[in-house]
Amino acid sequence: MLAAAFLAIGLMYCGNRDMGGDPHTPRGDGVYRPVLARGDGHLSFLMARSLLFDGDLRFENDLARFGDPFRNAAPGRRATIPHPIGPPLLWVPLLAVAQAGAVVANVFGADIALHGYTQWHQRIAFSSSALAAILAICLGVAVARRTLGGGYAPAYAGAAILLGTSLTYYATFMPSYAHALDAAGAGGFLAAWALTLGRWDRRRVLLLGSLLGVAALVRTQELALGVVVAVEAAVTLARPGVAGDGASGAASGGPWRWRARVLGASAAIAALAMVVLLPQALAWNEVFGQWTSLPQGPSYTRPLYPRVAELLFAARNGWFAVHPLAYAGALGLVVLLVRGPTPARLVAGGLLAALGVQVYLNSIILDWWAQASFGQRRLCSMTLPLVVGLAAWLHLGAALLRRLAWPRLVGHVAVVVGCGWFVAWNLARVWPLRAGRAAQFGVGPACCRVVGPPLAWLAQPVYDALGNPFALPASAWFSWRFGVQLQRWDLVQGDYPWLPPMDYTRDSLRGQSVAWPLGRPRTDRHALRGLGAGDAKNGLRWTTAPVAEMIVPNLLPEPMELTLRLLPNLGPSGRGKAVAVRWNGRLVVEQVLTEEREVSWRIAGDVGDNRLSVQAALDDATSDVTARGAPRRAGVALGELRFTAR
Length: 646
What we know:
Jelly Rolls
């Protein structure tokens, strides 16, 4: 099973002939023409090329020659690339091998360009992604076998996670992105931790500290994986009479000396990881002039405003909603924590802590959906925990079959059918992205935009009844909060009026504004009750009940002024219209309107889904407002809602 999954990854990788749809035009004329590297992967590859061919981290010549799709170079300032240094460092020796091979092949007439930006060079360099994905799965299988025993459950789990999650895409059709390398780096550290559990000797400190630093070189936030050591240390210190290396606390010099040893080893692991991470600090200092830096800008992360529910359950790249096997793997760790033997519980507890920290760290990123991403690409780092968690479910199922005395074949069939469904669903979504197409899955119904029959025939009735079942419980909470159907969750989450540049600051944002067309059809999905349909011609949405409500999503915690354009229907009497506006239940505007005008109020920190309520009495529509799309009886019309940063 594992061998077949590995073969599938290899064939998909070798079959990816991207070339940006233009395989014949030579590269290096200043135009961005992808080969196998695209977007961020293009920039990361240029970092490796600059290190090998130029011996520096100055990218002006590389961007000028091979394309600058995101305008990282600008007149009067140094060109910067904000990506980690780890993947380029790995690719440098592979590029050197490719360059040497190209020189030899050219002697025999191969005619491979020696500037390094060719399919030959990138095919060799990016093979590391396919191999890294396979390595991550092997590590997960090894930990699952050590923790749970058995052979089939870990093998099935490894194959399912490899072919049923985001890892599939980033190991094959988008290998220039470092997420498969991230899976291997994080998996290497977590596997070393789990397989040496209970030891606090120097060799383990050197191993874990080095591997944690390597993982952080691939993606800096992987330093937080060290939480597994903290969990183990806390459990050990809670029962200090037993030393993990086989010696009693007394034999090791007493419980207090044992405590000091555990704390010292934990601190040494963290310190060594920081030493291994030094190349990243050197690269930051060289490129950005700072030893420690957040290259994307200070507002790229917002620790006080995590979007955990969206990250996990949104149709727009939600980890669990898009890849249910990840959901099963995470829940499997909970099962292992509750039902497993004592050593397995400690492994499960550590992996759950790592998973929780990674979910939080990714949920505080401005674009929690990771832009053009296939699922939650930033959580490929959690590949090993998912393998262990899914194996826990399969191990539990095998125990149940033995208790029922059912044939083993029943279990194999159940696993192949059950996991195979989600693998087939994932591959059906991956396959249209072959040849390097970017994943562009926006807000919309989870079923069944991409996956066709026969999968859609079975999935559509479930979605019609429950929405995406893997968006629960978030979709149920959203449905209860706003009084809408479960399916509305998929239509709203991830659609924001204002997404500023990733490197924005409060100062750069101040005074800027953006208008959100409440009155147009594109915002129909945000209307809750008491509102008519949007009017593309007039740009107005009329209230059809005394109290009308809309969902207003907001991504920015910065202080802002909101300005809403209102047009009153004065009715036959012609008297002014009393209007009250509430924001999340707070009365923010109370006025009598006699003509079309704007009303304003201020907000700060209102990140997420907000409830906008407009209260106005209904009257028979006059000819003036009928000409502007009013129904027979109407209150006021909502025009655009403008957000202005303060």
